[in-house]
Protein 1
Amino acid sequence: MKGHSQNKVNPILLEVFKNRFSSISEEMGVTLNRTAFSPNIKERRDFSCAVFDANGDMIAQAAHIPVHLGSMPLSVKSAIDAANWQEGDMVMLNDPFKGGTHLPDITIVAPLFARGDKPSFYVANRAHHADVGGMSSGSMPLARSIFQEGLIIPPLKIVERGKIDRKIMGFLLNNVRTSTEREGDFAAQIMANITGVRRTTQLIDKYGLDVVEFYSSALMDYAERMTRDTISRIPDGLYEFEDYMDDDGFGNERIPIHVSIEIKGDQARLDFTKSHDQVEGSINAVYAITLSAVLYVFRSLVKRDIPTNAGCLRPIDVLTRKGSIVDAEFPSSVAGGNVETSQRIVDVVLGALSQALPEEIPAAHQGTMNNIAIGGVDPSNGQPFAYYETIGGGMGATARSDGESAVHCHMTNTLNTPVEALEYSYPFLVTEYSIRRGTGGRGKHRGGDGIVREIRLLADSEVTVLSERRLIPPYGLFGGEPGAVGRNIVSRNGVAEKMGGKLSVALKKGDVVRVETPGGGGYAEPES
């Protein structure tokens, strides 16, 4: 680019590239959203898209799913290491022990060749598939091993030189319950990457490869500087907090997650090594999830509009212990670690930081994603179906305001599945969808209220629910009261039965499953 100096960052161009890279990620998301088959992707938008440099470091991610923030780069690096890349290739993977989160989250990575025989950039997207096999519909089972949770996909080429490998695709589709829907969602992910490669190529054509590479690196440096500035404003010190997972579904209760945060200048060191050992049930989190939760919290503290990229993590050290609930080892079950344990990691990090930043940190949110998966055969067409959804709840109150009610909180950023779309796509009748009034914790500022979602089944179905905060309520801060715990209720032949936080049951046509989600914690003592 004429007049450009490689030694000096032009602030105007930096802003231009910040928005260009973000818009590429956003347009990838639009493509994926509009071409997907499943309600979980096209309605709830349970996906993320991002652009990476030649080393697999994230340059920019669209404002999609926070739990994918720190984990997708690890998948991209695994893909880079595993593949002999050629133009037109794409690599697919979901292995949680190679940078993934849990098996339904499938990542597809594509290279961009701008010079020579090595990729100059990569684009990638991750989408939650409503079924990837395993012991129960929806692939979110109460499992004791990852082998029970679904098909484990190592990094492999699903597209080679622009052509889908039909043998691999056939193998994948033969191991899931809803093959037509899965094939449509895979095609949407591939199209999203094609969009990302095309737009990034156009950026290079306009500015030149050297300039694009220079500003992609400068954007990471900028994000690092802003994150360091944010950390430097936190008082130096050591801050500790501990909270608990309710249970693992197999009798292990009150499972502690502990963090010690040391702030020293513009560096933060988070030590999770005192957390509990990995457990029998599926609430184990792999390291990528812990990294994502930490990145989410510190990125949320940055008040400037910075790109979310690899630079945000440079001032942050995350220590874990292999074989613990926050850094589980193969072959532990992990389906709930991504969706449930990630939320508790956020709770403990925010709880620790509340001691240093009482005016900025909210009380505990609902602390769960209230995962529900239902599968069976639709009697109207004889075809199998697999429904998956997370349900919102109450957000914690802050020093300035009440918590929001009936929202997806922290590590999830999806929409809901509208009642009309739900009943159109599945043999369900939604008999109640409402705000669960009065469930937010009392305080000077009150926590947000939870949600009630009640579904009458119009077909025999197997139902799985993975949820938390059914025993231990979301904490309040500085005298604020805890939010109400959630409840799961199953009605068979008109008889209601309160269930635990983790359940797997076979229900008949006409039976009802009801999920009542927790409220958020209150902030400060209630005023008389």
Note: The chain has a mean pLDDT of 94.
Protein 2
Amino acid sequence: MKRRNVYLAMKSLAEAKEIFFSRLGQMRTEPETIDTEQALGRVTAGPVFARLSSPSYHSAAMDGIAVRAQQTYGTSERKPRVLRIGKDALWVNTGQPLPEGFDAVIMVEKVHMLEEDRVEIRSPAYPWQHVRKVGEDIIATQLLLPQNHRIRPVDIGALISGGVFSLKVWQRPIVAIIPTGSELVPYKVFQDKGVLKSGQILEYNSSVLSAMIRGQGGVPRVYGVIRDDRDSIQDAIYRAVASDAHVVIINAGSSAGSRDFTAEAIEKLGEVLVHGVAMMPGKPTILGVIEGKPVIGNPGYAVSSVLSFEQFVAPLLYRLQGIEPPEPKLIRVRLTRDVPSKLGIEEFLRVNIGKVGEKYVATPLPRAAGSITTLTRAEGILRIPELSEGITQSEEVEAELLVDERELLNTVVFIGSHDMTIDVLSDEIRKEGKGIRISSSNVGSLGGLIALKKGTCHFSGSHLLDTETGEYNLSYIRRYLRGVPVAVFHLVKREQGLMVAKGNPKHIKGIEDLVREDILFVNRQSGSGTRVLLDFKLEQAGIDPKRIRGYDHEEFTHMAVAVDVVSGAADCGMGIYAAAKALELDFIPIESEQYDLIVPLDLVDEANIQVILETIRSEPFRERVTTLGGYDASRSGELFAEIS
């Protein structure tokens, strides 16, 4: 039996940082000299002093006439003074050198022409009036920029103005990235061959890490993918440490698996400081030092990789350049649902954030460590402390913003049943340049109604069938939204049915086949409209759900069900035709159902809601929805009912 690495001495995030950064001390890269024009974003490696004064001559700050101030004393409206051009005054333009012997400028607007060579003034000038004196902006030898200053565009102007055409800055930190994993395929290889074998996945973590390194002012250097082999990994680490890299990252070789050799290699070549950090995602992080260089075992799951980088590599890159990391922008939010968390682990929860009424609400995104889209969709990160067992809806907590706060004002929060048309709606609005973003959370139709009742969303989507009347949504709205006046807008009619593998190899014909021993089913979650419809059809057919293999296996979206079927994890699942079509599955129609949008009446006239309603009534939206298949959008945007 192979030995497995176990996190026997896992450290808290705070402990891991203290151990790692205290061991590294005040690291710096070496100084280098670069041209001033290339210095944007670089950090000064020493103080920078002006070599020239600016301006280097007395110059006119206004268009007008240059005069001797003393000669104008005593001038007033009652006692105007006449000056002779060429003798008492000279015409000058802004920026021109002040003629020798003159010490003031009178604006052209204050000058009254009498003759070509004679002008009249009606107020006195004072010495150096409207004159930029030598060194007014910069005096030679003046300190222009201190050490450890990140250079901005305006700094480049000041440097050149002060005669500084080159300067010393800290070198950009070079970061070696070693992707590991026998299953990994570089995307460029796939691009050429176009085939992924079973068990292979595209390697993209190195691309994400490279972009983050550039964003922190560093230079990424990506090695080729290293297979899961002890000697190969150790050799790659040795070569990276021996290179001019300042930091070494080994990606995907740091979990507790029997074939993960990173910790062993670091220990053999240097010292492992931390193996396992009490953070989620990111627990498998390894922190070590080899020949004085920091070496980080960065987890392979995408979200773990990013969060581990942000906690350990990003601060290190700032330190190497002599600057402090920026302070995160925090905002107070309330969660749309209770979130339990594991005691002893600090969790980084990705959330969507929007402003509903006077409060900011945060909707948790899926917590899977491998779901990179939870970061692309997130507006914020909420940290659940290691000594907390979770956060309730009643608590107001801080979230770190990943977007500009102004964007939250244009975020419309949707909570309800999953439907592919919501994604189309979101894209159509953005295509029109409206600047409105839809933050969607798929919790099922009933969950959406409850969110409306609590005031944690702007609108919801529902397709709940009243099995007694055959009517959709209205009876549920009256039951669950009592006291909340709402408007119900029709979105689409859509086909619900059974999704099966292409060619229908199990020859499934309908609901009655779900009880067969050779059929493995995948269900939607309790409270979803699809689940309500399925249970109704099972009752009609006299089928006990307990007889269906997989009835308790739940997914939260139609596409998740379709993926289970296409991957072979299930033989059959209930969902919409558009999801089956998208993944080239066969489809057995069961029911044509009504999907509606529910909006609180007091929000209907808000500008963002009006844009949504206008969009779903538009022809481009209806055409796009129709092309998905299984949809009838002819009544999209029609007011179906108002319920007080």
Note: The chain has a mean pLDDT of 92.
Protein 3
Amino acid sequence: MTRKSLIRGAAILAAAGLANRFLGAVARIALPTLIGDEGVGLYQMAYPVYGVFLVVSTAGIPVAVSKLVAEQTARSNPSGILKILKVATAILVLTGTFFSAALAVGAGPIATYVARDARAALAIEAVSPAVLILSITSAFRGYFQGLQNMGPSALSQVTEQIVRVSAMIGLAWLLLPRGVEFSAAGANLGAVLGGAAGFLVLLVTYFRLQHVPGSWKVTWPQIRATVAQRGAVSRDPENYMSSTLALTRRIFDLSLPVVLAAAIMPLMQFLDIAIVPMRLAAAGFAPDEITRLFGRLTGMAQPLMYFPTLVTAAVAASAVPAISEALARGDRGTLSGRAQEAIRLGFLFALPSAVGLFIFAREFSLMLRWPAEVQVPLRALAFGTVFLALQQISSGILQGLGAVTVPVRNLAKGAVAKLVVSFVLTGMPAYGIRGAALGTVAAFAVAGLLNMATLVRMLGLSLDVLSTVVKPALGVAVMALAARATYGGVHRATGSNTLGSLAAIGVAIAVYGLVLLLSGVVGRHELEVFPGGGRVTRILEKLRLLRH
């Protein structure tokens, strides 16, 4: 995998994520209009429960599959690739069947005693088959990502979301005459149909690639030839391919820490619920004000901080197989280069996002029809975007290196930092809700910086400070000045905050991109990976905007 492939993989996954966010927004607008607050309530009672069962069922196995397939790819071992896919699929069929059945059987008690509305049972039963379908799907997504072919995974995700949203709205409308509980169940059934469509895309792609010359064919004739040539199933020095049991153990060794890390994020959200209202009350805020402040932090400001993860999560996912492949080849130079490239990509996107959230906190809040006071926690959270990107990408690199427990330990330390900072600062009237926001920033700062310290020790990692920090920071400074000037001009001319904000965003993207081009931070290698990138490169070279 070349440097281009890392960027291409991240770009493909990020584009799929953006499309899915847009489709999800359509569903969030259409569904309440169609089935009302009560119907959405029943739908939402089922969906989080389904999400928990799905996370437990997949148990981080797709990340393990991605890493192990990348290792066997580096060793030119198609039999090992197929064996990993077969064993992972078998595991996920078992776990998916068990948790799908458990969700269906437990729908009544969950609805009655957890959701406190027995009508939600039908919606929970409707969504339960999706656990099995998406568990199996995740094995194939990990397989393709391990081959560093992100296209099938991205196409599968977009197809799944298109079918899910279409079926959700269509079935909710068709079943509405039978009652709101049936309509909510129909909406949840969309997840089953969407999952089936996404899996079908992956399955068709898998079998089609068997007939493409030069692709990774994992057919039985090739496996027999490989075994005959080598006299063994695998050349893997770690010997985890020697038996199905050993491979299963290796998959769980890699996947379980990923599940633990995923469990820490809900724990951090629970800390907000447990600490923030209590400490705001200690600071002298009235109960109704506490509720408003908590909503501004968790329901408005935090989602904006998390939005850039659309790109950084894609970079992290692309980094796992890239790092694993270089590690399997024993190529330390390539290993270090890919790690640096992943971190640079994350920083190039996260820094302008953080500055934009900080300087336009009030304007963005008003544009989204939120209270202007949302700017208070949003400004405090803004630079947490950079640390969140660092934590995500460094975790992906460490997972690729096989150090899967390190991100878990460091994120747990970050949760402790959040607890301390939130408890102390939120109870001070001078900080209030800003203290809770700074606690979240502290969590990702601690986790991200500790991850980086580990990478420095493991790889002797040293970043190109000029291209990674200095030039992008200069670009962000120029971007901020141009965006503020644009906002002021458009707002004075039109009196519209929304038009001013949108114009400022457009100018900011253009100016920042131009500075990166002129300074050489972004060049031919980055641009050519995108569709039509070669043509764009030639145009920019004619305009002398692209440095060699």
Note: The chain has a mean pLDDT of 83.
